[in-house]
Each structure stands twice: as C-alpha cells, then as structure tokens.
C-alpha cells in the first residue's frame, strides 16, 4: 500500500497540530490578536512570500515533465497572484507602505524557514522540495478550514482579521492546495519506507519552522 500526504501529518501529529492550532491562529480567529503582532507578522510574511515564490521557481526549474511544471506554476501563481497581490494592499490598510516593505530587515525566523526550504530544494529532488513547501500551501488552507470549524471564530466586520481568513478559505487558494495534495499523493504512492522517513523529517522540520514563524509574530522578535 502506498503513502499519502495524510501519512506525513500523521507521522508528526503533535507538531502539525501545534502549527494549525497555534495561539496566533486562535487569537486571530477570535479577533483579539494584538495589532502589533499582526503587523509584525504581515511585514515578515511579505519577505517570506518572496522567498517562497523563488522556491516554486526552483521547483519549476527541477520539473522534468509538463505536469510537474504546471504544478510548480500553480504554487507560484498562488503566491504571486493571490497572496502577494492581496498582501501589498492589505499591508497598506494596516499602515505599512510598499517603501517600508522594500526596506525591511529579515527576522531570524524568516531567514531560517525560507533558507531551509531553498536549501532542501537545492540539495534534494523535486519531491523533497514539494514536501518542504507543503506546510505552507496545505497548512494555510487547512488553518482557514479549521478556523471556520471553531465555534469561537468571529467572521465579518466584528473581526479585524476577517479578510485574512477569507483569502485562505477562498476558491483560488483552496484549489491550489488541493492540486498540491493530489500531486504529493501521486508521488508518495510508490516511495519506500526509508524514503518516506526522510521525507517525514523534511516535513516535520518545515512544520516546526512554521510554528516559529507564528511565535515570531506573537513575540515581535527580530
Ligand atoms: C509563514 C507562512 N506560511 C505559509 C503561508 C501561506 N502561503 C504564508 N503566507 N506565510
């Protein structure tokens, strides 16, 4: 029997839940996340997204088939056309100008996560890279769905972070997430147990770096 994406999350269930249900996420869903924490997160996320777009471009470079190339393109589009497009306008609403974004120093959590993924993609193969990227694309789609399932999540004008949830529950982002899940499921179907263990290590490390990214937002750390 082959592996699936859900075997990756099952293999590091504690880290995966700590990421999806992080305090930053809960407070954002309940609408009482501190403004400064969100602003710090938003700024660093701009830098993060630029490096992750580079990582999808690396996935395109490493793609041997048209189907693989299309999948890398899907991820790149989700970041550049959906997230970054909304992000810049969203930052403006939160009082952060494009000039400020261009001059931002990178926080350590941003550096660690983005360079880890780029390094994993450079030294590994295409599946290593997609698995390192998965907590980002699949995780945020799952977070939006998890938030919507929580009775204390506030939606609409009552929650200043409603637009953030709306972006990740939106059709385009959810479609990109499902396409990524299908691509990973198809590749995991015929890996050996040893290869699956190596992929689990990558997935767990990237998930732990996502947890650090939330914590960086809460702590305002640089
Ligand atoms: C840190 C982080 N991880 C994931 C995502 C969703 N692409 C994001 N915007 N930022």
Describe this structure in words.
With 222 residues, the chain is an all-alpha fold. It has one domain (22-27, 35-217): Heme oxygenase-like (Heme Oxygenase, Chain A). Helices cover 79% and strands 0% of the residues. It has eleven helices and no strands. The protein has helices at 5-11, 13-20, 23-30, 35-61, 66-93, 98-102, 108-123, 126-149, 162-169, 171-188, 193-219. Helix 4 runs antiparallel to helix 5 and helix 4 (35-61) runs antiparallel to helix 8. The longest helix is centred in the middle third of the chain and has 28 residues, at 66-93. The radius of gyration is 17 Å and the shape is globular. The chain starts with a helix and ends with a helix. The model has no long low-confidence stretch (mean pLDDT 95). The structure holds 5-(aminomethyl)-2-methylpyrimidin-4-amine. 5-(aminomethyl)-2-methylpyrimidin-4-amine is lined by residues 45, 48-49, 83, 136-137, 140, 210, 213. 5-(aminomethyl)-2-methylpyrimidin-4-amine binds next to helix 4, helix 8 and helix 11.
CATH domain fold name: Heme Oxygenase, Chain A
Helicity range: over 70%
* Total domain units: 1
**Which ligands, by name, code or SMILES, are bound?**
5-(aminomethyl)-2-methylpyrimidin-4-amine
Instruction: Tell me the distance between the termini.
Output: 45 Å
H and E order? HHHHHHHHHHH
| CATH architecture term | Up-down Bundle
Strands, total number: 0
Helix/sheet category: mainly alpha
